[in-house]
Amino acid sequence: MADFVGYAYAVVVFLGGLIGYVKAGSVASLASGAAFGVAAAYGAKLVSTNPKNVTLALAVSVALLLVMGFRFSKSGKFMPAGLVSLLSLVMTIRYGIRLIQ
């Protein structure tokens, strides 16, 4: 079965980078959003093929949780760092549970 939640997460991450570029002209936001979005999508593809193959998807969600969680703690702004941190936390828990089952 396809990992639709994982694919949706990847799209949100990618679109977040794109929106950061459009609103603020941030090439770094575009590059990181694209890189993490593609990595998350590939991780979702691997999970779709084999539900136990969560390593990449888990690594991407943990990395985004740490990076965006740090940014959220510094800025206190929910958008975009808080939202991505929250989504990444949910995905980390989701993939972590799959890893230990």
Q: Can I get a quick summary?
A:
The protein contains four helices and no strands. The chain has 101 residues and is an all-alpha fold. Helix 3 (55-75) runs antiparallel to helix 4 (78-100).
Number of helices: 4
Question: How can the largest sheet be summarized?
Answer: none
SS content category: mainly alpha
Q: Calculate Rg over CA atoms.
A: 13 Å
List the helices and strands and how they pair.
Layout: H1 4-24, H2 27-49, H3 55-75, H4 78-100
Helix pairs in contact: 1-2, 1-4, 2-3, 3-4
Walk me through the structure.
The protein is mainly α. The protein has one domain (4-100). It is built from four helices and no strands. It has helices at residues 4-24, 27-49, 55-75, 78-100. The longest helix is centred in the middle third of the chain and has 23 residues, at 27-49. The radius of gyration is 13 Å and the shape is globular. The two termini are 17 Å apart. The mean pLDDT is 96. InterPro entries: TMEM14, TMEM14_sf. The chain crosses the membrane at residues 7-24, 30-47, 54-72, 78-97. Pfam families: Tmemb_14.
